[in-house]
Give the backbone structure.
Amino acid sequence: MTQISLPQPVGTDSLDVELEVAGASGRPARFWSGRTKYLLGALSIVICLVMVTPIVLSVSASLKTTEEAAAVPPTYFPSELSLDNYQKLWDYGSGLPRYLANSVITAALTIIMTLSLTVPAGYGLARFPIPGKEAIFVFLLLALIIPYQSLLTPVFLMFSTLGLTNNLLGLAIVHTTIQLPFSLYIMRNAFESVPRELEEAALVDGASSWQVLRRVFMPNMVPAVITVTLFAFVTSWNEFLGALVMLTKDTSLTLPLVLAAARSVTSLGSTDWGMLQAGVSVAIIPCVLVYLLLQRYYVSGLLSGAVK
């Protein structure tokens, strides 16, 4: 009896080979994908430790006694906890509350003036048909390449004539000038990222340009406004050289100037490291709190208008 062999489907063997190769290549891919996840996690932990370690050591040094804070070789953690450094800082000069209030007032004025200038400027440069507005925008951004330190001498002479030295308003104007170019860049890009259909719909309904800005754009500008606010606050809070030039009266000093002055209050002019680190710890707290409260808006504000 004759056996009849049925033909095999064409390409079956090659298909099996391809599936085996795909399976073999898929296993290493999954293996390296899992490894990459753990490597990224480990790298993130290392970066966090590098960032947090100086803060922890600063707070630790502020809780040491004056003698232990200046000991050689240094100790990383206090053998006994002491709040003497914070007490000395609290009573230094006109008192820590006065200097904190000066810094807060200056930062608040800087934020208000920065937003008051950059919001309408960004709106106009992004939405109005201004002749040569691109050239104007680039010209305004050129201020980023000019170090503000080179302008402090003529600014001081002008402000002394106007009576704005030893004045928190004058210092806030200097800080606003430092912050304006970058803030304008953020606000203009944010306004350009809003769809024009929203603006056109409001204009068809009879809204004025002010109403369009207030009711259509500003609700969409929250991330950009908070980003500008955050940068203006940090710039004003930490700025030292402008405050050093503009302020000489003890009652008008800001916190960075006080920290520079308070570090040499011991006998023989040596540095009081414990008191200095107490001041650094106090100065860090507002920046950390503001960033933690506003961080969810921060990245989206920086990316506003980045993608057309």
